[in-house]
Amino acid sequence: MAIPLRNPFRIRYALIALLIAIVFGTIGFHSIEGWPISDSFYVTIQTLTTVGYGDLTPHDVAGRLFAILVMLIGVGGVALAASTIVQSVVQSELIATFGERRRSKMISKLDNHFIICGSGRVGSHLVRDLVRSDEPFVIVENDQQRASDFSQRGMNVLVGDATLEETLREAGVERARGLAACLPNDADNVYVVLTARDLNSGLHIVARAAEEQAEAKLIRAGANHVVAHTIIGGHRMAVSLTKPAVSEFFDSVTGSEIGLGFEQVEIKAESSLVGRQLRETPIRAELDIVIVSIRRANGDTLFNPTGDTRIENGDTLIAIGQIESLERLNEQAASH
């Protein structure tokens, strides 16, 4: 991973001071001794670096006094620049080492988290949404500069090849809730899905497909869902063209422009909602939430359930409503 230098302004000032000393010495020797600029520059560098070959030396008192001045000022500037750069590099190495250890320790403690394999155009949008929803996640990225950018923003980043088993193990794939294969190459995404599914049979995997024909391969490899941007993009354009009102409403909900959002609410056994009909719950009357569908534990799905529909343990409610109300519903779904 690229390591940013500490105290860049101190380094800049030290280098500027060194440059000034070189220019000062070159012009001074040229004026006093009458040497050409190239010879004056040569003697100045000799003086500052304390090499002193002796092939060119000042001939009069004024030149020697000026040489002494260059030595006193310039040699100090060289020492300052060298010490500043060395100190900055050492500090950066130490901070980077401790930072890597701290991030590895944090990743090892993560549980029920998400793993994002690839942080390019697709992965970066996914990361943004996970940050917004305050979900725990790890980014697996083999581009050091891109990984450094995310790391400096305080995110858990693992530099490595997501197609390798040891990399996914280090990212905590056995403890993860879900994984997104967002690599730009379909073959690499197939390898990621195969490896992740082998390491965690219950992992929810979503994969990106750059080409439509890769969708079936990713499903066979073990992906639960495949997102093909060409298909989704074409469908969204068709909806926007033929049903603009529907498209605008969907955009306003997903973009949170009107404060609404979709939520997947999982009903736990200890929830106060278990065994009650929808009309008996505060979901519609108090929280003003619309239940779009209910997915039963056995896999059956009820679309637009009526008020007589009874909520059961293990149900998954697909709801739409205000963000604050959805948060309260999640709390009620988990406990009394």
Describe the structure in your own words.
Helix content is 53%, strand content 15%. It is elongated and about 110 Å long. It is of the alpha/beta class and 336 residues long. It is built from twelve helices and ten strands. It has a six-stranded parallel beta sheet with strand order 3-2-1-4-5-6, sandwiched between helices. The chain starts with 7 loop residues before the first helix and ends with a helix. The chain folds into three domains: 8-105, Helix Hairpins; 110-233, NAD(P)-binding Rossmann-like Domain (Rossmann fold), CATH 3.40.50; 258-334, Regulator of K+ conductance, C-terminal domain (Alpha-Beta Plaits), CATH 3.30.70. The chain has helices at residues 8-33, 37-49, 61-109, 121-132, 144-152, 165-170, 186-199, 214-221, 229-242, 244-254, 282-285, 323-334, and strands at residues 114-117, 137-141, 157-159, 178-181, 204-209, 225-228, 260-266, 290-295, 301-303, 316-322.
List the helices and strands and how they pair.
Elements: H1 8-33, H2 37-49, H3 61-109, E1 114-117, H4 121-132, E2 137-141, H5 144-152, E3 157-159, H6 165-170, E4 178-181, H7 186-199, E5 204-209, H8 214-221, E6 225-228, H9 229-242, H10 244-254, E7 260-266, H11 282-285, E8 290-295, E9 301-303, E10 316-322, H12 323-334
Parallel strand pairs: 1-2, 1-4, 2-3, 4-5, 5-6
Antiparallel strand pairs: 7-10, 8-9, 8-10
Helix pairs in contact: 1-2, 1-3, 2-3, 7-8, 9-10
Q: What is the beta-strand fraction?
A: 5-15%
Strand order, main sheet: write it out: 3-2-1-4-5-6
List low-pLDDT spans.
1-6
The biggest sheet, with number of strands, parallel, antiparallel or mixed sense and barrel status, is: 6 strands, parallel
Radius of gyration: 32 Å
